[in-house]
Amino acid sequence: MPLWSEWWVWMSAALAMATLEVIVPGWIFLGFAVGAFVMGGLLLIGMTGMSLPITLVIFSLLSLAAYLAMRKVFGLKTGQVKVWDRDINE
User: Fold this and answer.
1) Given this model, what pLDDT does residue 83 score?
2) Is 62 exposed, middle or buried (CB count within 10 Å of its CB: 0-12, 13-18, 19+)?
């Protein structure tokens, strides 16, 4: 069985990307981590197990959806601007 169709590989990749997100914040790696986690879950329950290109397309679509959902939920609302009214050094 190819390595990309093993569920634990995707779960390990999700853990590595979530750790990388803590080290290098920016919400980018968290979307990939969620995509890899969901992909690992799909492989665990047997819903996928296709060729590498199809698996990568599914992973990329899951990652994009996770990133856009997190941006919608946690991002700034339209027209909202961060205003700093005091300095941290005061």
Assistant:
1) 75
2) buried
**Whole-number Å distance between alpha carbons of 85 and 9:** 47
Tokens (6 digits) for 27:
């919400």
pTM, two decimal places: 0.80
Q: What is the mean pLDDT of each run of 10 residues along the chain (90 residues)?
A: 90 96 87 95 85 92 94 77 75
Question: What is the rounded CA–CA span in Å between residue 48 and residue 4?
Answer: 11
Residue 41 three-state SS: helix
pLDDT at 48: 73
Tokens representing 84? 């700093």
Amino acid letter for position 87: D
Number of H helices, E strands in the chain: 3, 0
Taking a C-beta distance cutoff of 8 angstroms, is the pair 37, 10 a contact? yes
